[in-house]
Each structure stands twice: as structure tokens, then as C-alpha cells.
Task: structure prediction
Amino acid sequence: MSSERPFEIQRIDHVVLRVQDLPRAVRFYCDVLGCTVARERPSLGMVHLHAGESLIDLISVDGPLGIKGGAAPGREGRNVEHVCLRVEPFDAEQVRVHLQGLQVELSGPAERNYGAEGDGLSLRLRDPDGNSVELKGRSNDCGC
Result:
């Protein structure tokens, strides 16, 4: 087996989440987190969202693609552990105030976590379908 690969991973291109209420999920990711709609594909029950240089694809659990995944995500079963979105600037208190103003609860205080750029502060929350979303600041960012 050769150790030479014909490619190098550059970044996450996209993440696909199955959701129970597609319009509600689109509103959350756009209005709360600042994503923008890149493309809508109603025939597939799918919406592609710009998330910085990456995409978050949302598919309806009862749509042509989503139905293949079985039961909807919930408290006892999720599609993914979490999705981490690198955000800037990252001020933990400003993020907390922003989310509270939108009635979005955080899963706890800011914590230092390891990511693609190294250790940095992050906050966690849940989207309307219970998927965990981590908002991560710059590596070694104090969050002040």
C-alpha cells in the first residue's frame, strides 16, 4: 500500500443535516447564525446554505433524500455529534447576548477546545432539531 495520496484535504466542503421542519431550520441558520441561502432544491427537499467558505446543506427528513436516513433526529438520536463553525470576531459575551436576544440557549459557558487552527474558545448551542452547533473563535483567542 502506497503512503502517497493523490490529494490533500483543504477544509470541510459541506455538512448535510436532516431536519424535521426545513423552513424553521433555514430561518435558524440564517437569522441566528448568519448563513445565507446559496441554492434551493425543492424537488429534493434541500436547501444549500453558505457558511463562510463552506456549505451547510439542510434536507427535510420526509423529502426524497432525507427519508433514506430513517427516523428524524431527536433527543435520543442525532444525525451528527456536532458541527463546528469558525467565527470571527469571537467575543463570548457578545455572542451570548446575541443568542439570548433570539431566545437561543447555550449549552454551557465558553470553553477552550481544539480545532483546525489549534486551541480556542468556543460556545455550544442546539439548532431547532437538537443538532449541536459549536461556534469557535480564533486559536488562542481570549474571547475578551
